[in-house]
Amino acid sequence: MTSNERLIALRLGRRAAAALFFINGFVVGSWAPQIPSFVSRLGISEFTLGLLIFCFGVGALLAMTLAGQLIAHWGSRQTLRLFALPVVIMLPMIAQTSDIWIAAIVLTVFGGVIGGMDVAMNANVVAIEKQLGRAIMSSSHGFWSLGGFAGGGLGGIAIQAFGPLNHAVIVAGLSAIGLALAYAHLAEDTAQPRQESRYRFTLPNQSTIYIIGAMALLSMSAEGSVLNWSALYLQKELLADTATAGFAFAGFSGAMALTRFGGDSIRNRFGAVATFRLSGIAAAAGMLAVGLSPWPWLAIAAFAFCGIGLANLAPILFSTAGNQPGLNAGVSLSVLTTMGHSGILLVPSLIGFVGGLVGLAPVYIAVAILLGVVSLLSGKTAAADAASC
User: Fold this and answer.
1) Are 61 and 345 in contact (CB under 8 A)?
2) 3-state SS track over 251-280
3) Fewest beta carbons less than 10 Å away: which of 85, 99, 127, 308?
């Protein structure tokens, strides 16, 4: 392959990765406004919803660990192709589920394919960053947020107009089209996959990756609290209607997307540590305003400001993990993603338990405190700048 052909392939690979980030975010964002109708259809309490969300989280975390090992064995492109295909059909399966036990199974599988796809997407972008010699992680995550914005913003309106099942079918159709266009153009990995005949499960023995993972857990808890509980918070505690409640996650994701598209330039100019520290402070301030807000639209604005702050936390942490010296990027990213997504996937189930006792407003105030703690650990992100070296 000539240098020109290689550059063209990288550009196509970058676009394909961006498309899959968008699809993943679009499907997850479309799930957020489905939650109130899901609760109503099954006739369940917040406590039970928390248990079902826990199933989603368990499925995701198990698949994330598996995905890291598959990436080391097969490479990120093949692993991404494996997990991306079933994502398309998951929302229609959820939207027609009315039995709580079937719902638990479907949500476990849903979490698994979303989680495995997440690890593979990030590993694929790390490979592209290394070949391009510059950071593209924030903008890639920007497409996830843009997908979440589209899914959350249009979802509430579509559900109100057409019903949950028709909305889910539309989401599946659009996602399938995007996947078909991107599937063949995913980028190759820079490192050669393992060639062992026997599959071996391994975890890194460096403590740094687990510290970074703990930071991801704390910061991504905030994303999980918005994804799974913002619509219900606006409806139940701030008395918003269905369409308005959908704008909570949409505003959050939209603000996050816009910030992420400029995040690579900000990080390349000011460095990962300074960018991470200021972002954590902004996210904490926004989440505190959410918990103290007495009005739906003020809470929506506060969610959006929190999205601006959270925008660059996860991308910087992913680049930090993917550039740890002496570690396979797929394995280290699976550790980070597993720990981080414990926050976005499992912590929301805890929020359901606590929220049922004290309400969701105090929960959002507690999340703001966690984000303040995250900003104090910003010095651990210096390795993220290796992506642009």
Assistant:
1) yes
2) HHHHHHHHHHHCHHHHHHHHCHHHHHHHHH
3) 99
Contacts of 12 (CB under 8 A, 6+ apart): 185, 187
Q: Taking the alpha carbons of 10, 14, 282, 345 in that order, is the dihedral positive or negative? A: negative
List all residues 6 or more positions away from 344 whose beta carbon is below 8 Å from its beta carbon. 220, 221, 223, 224, 227
Q: Which residues of the chain have pLDDT under 70?
A: 1, 190-205, 326, 328-330, 345-346, 386-389
Domains of the chain: 3-186+207-388 (1.20.1250.20)
C-alpha–C-alpha distance, residues 110 and 58, integer Å: 10
List pLDDT tens digits, range 199-232: 455 666 677 788 898 889 988 888 888 877 888 8
User: Nearest 5 degrees, angle CA 126-CA 338-CA 348?
Assistant: 125
pLDDT tens for each residue of 107-162? 999 999 998 998 899 888 888 887 877 778 888 888 887 888 788 878 888 888 89
